[in-house]
Amino acid sequence: MNKDNWSIADADELYRVSGWGAGFFKLNEEGKLVVSIDTQDKRTVEVAIVDLIHGMDMRGKALPVLLRVQNLLERQISLINETFAKAIEDSGYRGQYRGVFPIKVNQQASVIEDVVRFGKPYQHGLEAGSKAELMIALSMLQTPGPLIVCNGYKDREFVELGLGMLRLGFKVVFVIETPSELPIILESSKALGIEPLIGVRTKLFSHVSGHWNSTSGDRSVFGLNAKQLVDVVDGLKEANMLHCLQFLHYHLGSQIPNIRDIRTGVREACRYYAELVGEGAPMQYLDLGGGLAVDYEGTRSSSIHSRNYGLQEYCVDVVETIQSVLDEEGIEHPTIVTESGRATVAYSSMLLFNILDVTGFSDATLPKMEGDEDHNILRELRYTYEALSPKTAQECFNDAVYYRDEARDAFMRGQIPLRIRSKVEQIFMVIMAAVRTIVQEYPDAISEPEMLEKMLSDIYYANFSVFQSLPDAWAIDQVFPLVPLHRHNERPNRNAIIADLTCDSDGKIDRFAQKNDESRVLPLHEILDNEDYYLGVFLVGAYQETLGDLHNLLGDTHVVSIYINEDGSVDYVREVEGDSVADVLSYVEYQPQNLLAQFRQTAEQAVRNGTISASERQHLVNQFDAGLRGYTYYEQ
Length: 636
Ligand SMILES: *Cc1c(COP(=O)(O)O)cnc(C)c1O
Prior knowledge:
Mean pLDDT: 93
Radius of gyration: 30 Å
Number of strands: 23
CATH class of the domain at 70-347: Alpha Beta
Bound molecules: pyridoxal-5'-phosphate
Helix content: 40-55%
Shape: globular
CATH superfamily of the domain at 70-347: Alanine racemase
Structural class: alpha/beta
CATH topology of the domain at 70-347: TIM Barrel
CATH architecture of the domain at 70-347: Alpha-Beta Barrel
C-alpha cells in the first residue's frame, strides 16, 4: 500500500491479470507487468516486458512491435499434451492423444516452425484447410509420425500431393467434407496405386453458445449430414475401400465458453463413431476439432470472451465422456485428436505500443467571463452549475445537456459565435465533472452513470492500427486484455478510451474486461512529460495476424521473438522487419521507384520556376526517399 492507498493487488484486480494471465503474466513489486516462466527445477523466472523495449529499440525495432515469447508457445503445447496424457492415465482410457495445430490460426512461418519444434516430443501434427496450408504442413513437418489432417475442399492436385506424402510414410488424413470429394479421392488413389487414409466430417446436431456457433447445428455449412454420411459409407463399400475409413472429425466452432456444450458434442460424436464401427469401418481416430477457449476477460465464466472450465477439466471431460459412451457399446477406445488453435497460440504473442498524445475531457475549468455572461445560454448554465447538489444532480445533468444542445443549434443557425460556443462546452464539461464527483459518493444520483464516464473519458492516442493488429476487436467486438506495462504501483486516475493512428471512427478500443464486468472506459495513468507510457494488448497470437488489413496503409508491425532462459536472460531469437512505406505502397500497386522519379520531376519544375533552389530540391527529394524506406507507424 503506498501513499495513494493503492497496492499491486489492487492493480491486479482492476486489470484482472491473474485471471487472464494464466500464470504466464503477473505484476511484480516494481509495478511492472512480467512474463513468468517455470523452470525445470521448479523455480520461476520473470522478465518485465517494459525492460525489453529498450533492447528491441537498440536492435532498430521501435514500437509498435508484436512480441512473441517462444516459451509460452512451448509451454501451451506441452500443457495440452501432458494434461491429456494425465487424464488418459488417470481414467484408464485405452488409447492415446494426438494433437494437431490448425495452420489457419497463425500461418506465420516462425510460428509454424516453433509449433513443429515444440510439438516434436509429442508428435503434435498440423491441420491444413487449403492447398497452400497443405504445402506448409508437408514441408515443415519433415519427419513422418505426426498427423496431417486435411480439411476443406480438396481438388485432384491437393489429393495427389497428399497421397504422394502418404507413400513417404506421412500420416495424411483426407477428411471428406462433401460427398463430391469421395470420387476424386478414389480415382486419384486408383491412378497412383496408393491407399488413402480417409476421415469423415460430421455435422453435429448439438448447438453451442458463443460467437462462432453457426459452425454447429443443422444449418452448419460444413460437414456431412446423416444421409450424406451413409452415402459416403456406401460409396466406400462399393469401391471396396471401407477399410480406408478410420477417422471421424467434427468441429463445433471456435471459443466454446461452456463445458456443457463440449460434453454434448463429444457424446453425439461418439454415437456416430460407434455407428461407423458397426458399419464395419476399422475406426481409429476421433477428432474433436477446435473450440478449446481462451479466457480473454479472466472471469472464468460462460461469457463469450471467457470459458467456464480449465484445461484439465476439458481433457478429463473429453476422455471420460468418450470412455463411458464407447464402453457402453463395447467399442475399443480411439486415439483422441483435437485441433486446438486459439488455446495453443493466443498466449505467446502480444502487441506493444506507446501513447503519443492525450486529449483530456475531465479537467475543464470555468471559463473567464468577459462581459458575455449576459448571453442567456451561458447564464442558464451558470445557474445550473450553482444549483448542483446530490438531490438536483439528475435535473442539472438533464439541463446541462439541454443547454449544450441549444448552443450547438444556435451556432448552426449563426446565432452565437464560436467563442460563446467554446465557453458553453467548457462550462458543460465542468458541470459533468461535478456531477461525476457527486455520483462517486451517491451512485444513484443519476440514472445513466456509464454515459457520464464515457463522456468524461480521455482519448489516449496510441501508436498502432486496430485494423492491422487487432482485426477482431474491430470486426466482432472481441475483448482483449489491454494493460499498462509499468507504473502499477500508482493508482491509475484517468479513464480513457484508446484511439489508433487511422483517424477512422472505428479505429478505437472502447471495450475492456474489468473488475466487475465489461467496461467502456479503461483506467490509465496520467502521461508524464519526461517518460513514455507503454501499453500491451495480450493474447493476440490467434487469428489476428493474417486477418489484419492495410487500412490507411499502416502495414505489418515489426515482430520480435524472444526465448527466456532458465537463468532469466533473454535471447533475441528472431526479428522480422515490419512493412516500410514503400512496401505498403507496392501492395496497392504503386511502384515506389516511379513515385520517387515523379516527385523528383515535380521538385525540379519548382526549381525551374524559381520557387526553390536546387539544393532545397535535393533536400526534399532526400526526405521523400527516406520516407519511403521508413516505418509506416509514428517514429520518434
Ligand atoms: C478454425 C478451426 C479450428 C481451430 O479452432 P480453435 O477454436 O482456434 O481451436 C480447428 N478445426 C477446424 C476444422 C477449424 O476450422
